[in-house]
TrEMBL record:
Superkingdom as given in the UniProt entry: Eukaryota
Protein name (database record): Ig-like domain-containing protein
Domain spans labelled Ig-like: 240-339, 352-451
Entries under Gene3D superfamilies matching the protein: Immunoglobulins
PROSITE patterns linked to this entry: IG_LIKE
Species of provenance: Dryococelus australis
Matching InterPro entries: Ig-like_dom (IPR007110), Ig-like_dom_sf (IPR036179), Ig-like_fold (IPR013783)
Amino acid sequence: MCNPTVVNQYYEAEVVSEYVIRGNTAVLKCNIPSFVADFVRVEAWVGSDSSVFQPTPDYASVCGAEIGCDECECLVPAVVNQFYEAEILTEYVIRGNTAVLKCSIPSFVADFVQVEAWISDGGETHMPATGNYVVAQYYITEAENEYVIRGNSAVMKCKIPSFVADFVFVESWVADDGQVHRHTAATDNYVVAQSYEVEADNEYVIRGNSAVMKCEVPSFVSDFVTVEMWTDSTGGTYYPNSDYVVHQFYQSRVIDEFVLRGNTAVLKCLVPSFVADFVDIVEWVTDDGSFSASPTDNSDYVVNQYYEAQVYDVFVIKGNTAVFKCNIPSFVSDHVEIVSWEDTKGTRYLPPSDYVVAQRYDVNVMDEHVLRGNTAIIKCHIPSFVADYVFVSSWVENEETEIFLDNSSSDGKYLVLPSGELHIRDVGPEDGYKSYQCRTKHRLTGETRLSATKGRLVITGECGQAE
């Protein structure tokens, strides 16, 4: 028996009439229903005289008459050639400065058109330089005076104009007497030596306890200074060893656990929190030492515990879809998954690659009250059980005009927010006669659905009376 994964569904594609001025280019569109749009593509166009138009691998138009075959099909280009003009705006520049001219290309072809050359009035052609697309621009750097106390370190800064700061770096410094200071391999030290002092404050500690001394390093050099050793007042030197841990006494405890005979018991080792990050359990030992268990003896650290999964009866109307749920005990639900279902006849059902259960839902649009001249907000009410998978793709006005998220009305009257709400600006009396429906799309199944109800605007005046 064949179990197809694709459901064949009847659909019709439509071609809407297009109005075009004689001599212009016309573009026809094939409207494919949204519920199959992801799986259907246009392979060819057929004219009323049975002429077949197919896309060609190259983008040239080839017809039968041109190749000496009157009965051959006419192949149309995949690219629509459209007339456009590039413009160069006048630029004003001070004499002696650098001028930058820009070629303004219409936006509808900007992704496919590039500038190959510039031609002056005198017929001179200026081609782009090979590999050098940088416009040389004049700039001046400055080194301002710095005030410093005698004997201290001075830091001079070279100020580079911001419009070239990303491309200019300092190669050397030149003094008034002509001395040049460079970064050489021998003196590859970019650190300014600055005097600092470290301190060790007194610490108070009870006799017999552990004491921790801290070396306070000034914050302006703390990222570059490390403690190499400690020296006491008697001249003793203490170097850091491979163990940087301060040993501190602690005790672990095991609390009594009450359990029914025959059940599984779980004992816990309570480790003090101040060492819990550094202490782990290596072994369990009984009081008489007759039994010990180490985690290293077995790679399985899971306590096997008996559980039962249950499936309850589900009542459903004949012809509808039934959904069974497998109830797994909560104490093992994080570690147990369903691998298959099996009926009373022994037939096994494995999960398909598609885990989406198609469930019917309806979206609604309610009437909204708004004052004349204000902005109205219409919301698409989506049921909560599918709210995570359904989003608003567009709004339909009077069952004719469709308003999309990415191309709201050009006059700014309508605006669809990413949340799906429809904003209507400057509400007038004429808006109260229009109806609005939202069109939603399921993220997983791709199903689109129009709202079951139509929303209208109830416009009120300043006195609160509906118009």
